[in-house]
């Protein structure tokens, strides 16, 4: 099941890249639409280049989405160290952390070739959101 699901993720990512190109601005726009106050936080934490911080966060979100099926333990370790750091040290709400993962999944779902592929992104988003919640509980 894991290998087949990973193959579906890889195919969906390739298709999304062909249709959407660089998803960074799309993901950040969707994220800031959902969490308008987060834009000021990015400016606060990276005053000289908040766009670069956004790009790094999108890269991390995409890595988690594309690696979750194949190396779940690795992604759980990333989330268990990164999410609490964002919450406890940077004072970034946990819902923002999970929200960026969700925004990335939803942008990728816009390029889906059908309901099954869109559902895959929704499943991954829900699973990662639950992992984030568990890491900051």
Describe what you observe in this structure.
This protein is mainly α. It is built from seven helices and no strands.
Secondary structural class: mainly alpha
Q: How large is the radius of gyration?
A: 14 Å
Spell out the helices and strands N to C.
HHHHHHH
Query: What are the low-pLDDT stretches, counting only 5+ consecutive residues below 50?
Result: none
C-alpha termini separation: 29 Å
Number of strands: 0
Largest sheet: none
Binned, the helix content reads: over 70%
Portion in beta strands:
under 5%
Give average pLDDT, whole number: 95
User: What sort of overall outline do the alpha carbons produce when their principal axes are compared?
Assistant: globular
Q: Helix count?
A: 7
